[in-house]
Amino acid sequence: MPFIDLPPGLAGIAAGFAFRPEIARPMQELAHVLMYSPGPLSSGERELIATFVSARNRCYYCEQSHGATAACHLGGNASLVEAVKQDFQSAAISPKLRALLTIAGKVQEDGKKVTHEDVECARNFGATDREIHDTVLIAAAFCMYNRYVDGLGTWQPIDPAFYAEMGHYDATNGYLPIDSECNANSAQN
Predict the structure, then answer these.
(1) Domain 15-188 maps to which CATH number in 2.40.50.140, 1.20.1290.10, 1.25.40.10, 3.40.120.10?
(2) Distance from CA of residue 40 to its chain's centroid?
(3) 0.85 exceeded by pTM
(4) Would you say 180 and 26 are in contact if contact means Cβ atoms under 8 Å apart?
């Protein structure tokens, strides 16, 4: 049961967004740029970082929704998503992503825990400054998103099909508000 009078029937972050739509747009735009727009890390890798941070923060809604999105980007490989959440050090991921997840995990705890050695390790495995930057920002942003969802006591469905459908939608369409997509499409025509 939500802690404040949120619109009924809306799950997770959607309820907070409906309560304060003027805040929704910039938060959705940030998520879209971080997670969906072209970048040096694949969308699947970025979604894995978001899922990893959300799992560590115990935000069920974000862990499940971004885990489903990651699996879609990774060709349906939900077992890899689970492996990263359980023990990223032994998951079948690249050494570079493993080093970036180390940084993300430290940001999730306290950004001051990231060390020069962590960054150099990531660089030694081929991480660029942009990839390190984006990893830190994704981890920090998802701490905010997670705390927003859980701090309001939002409704978080337990049905895996709910998250699978959401993950497919987000992997296909990104995170922009629907009216922004329509406006962007009409501007291109």
Answers:
(1) 1.20.1290.10
(2) 16
(3) yes
(4) no
